[in-house]
Please model this.
Amino acid sequence: MQVRATAIPDVRVVEPKVFGDERGFFLESWNARAFAQAGIEAAFVQDNHSRSRRGVLRGLHYQVREPQGKLVRAVAGEVYDVAVDLRRSSPTFGRAVGEVLSAENKRMMWIPPGFAHGFLVLSEYADFLYKATAYYAPEHERAIRWDDPRLAIAWPLAGAAPVVSAKDAAAPLLAQAETYP
Model:
């Protein structure tokens, strides 16, 4: 497997070794020893699966207490996946990185605790999986606006407004959001 840092070094893109032939393919989506050797150490407690249609934007979500690290991937379709550094003590606080994840490219993204996360569906639909290092805690869930000008995220919207939940549409800007030390 190949692991590369993004413009925010703590966020990593994982390209698994894929073994394929005329029957299909095989890959390891998680191997604690191999990931630890690549600098990603995590103890996952929850797996999540969402399906969304083209133009749906989910996020930017995080848990202010019991923060979650996430290993994310698209197993059907294609998404533009984004992580935003919410750690005030970090030199990359308030910066965002994005990566196209798809069933075709089989890339995964590691988003450590302390980041907001979101994605935009680029294909007709996408099945999106993520492993989380902490349980979902709705009382600690927060969001920041997906279109915050300070974040300057280059969402590939193709001219159409994204479909967002009422909660995400009402999320505060980063300047008003609860963040991490």
Summary: The radius of gyration is 16 Å. The CA atoms of residues 58 and 166 lie 11 Å apart.
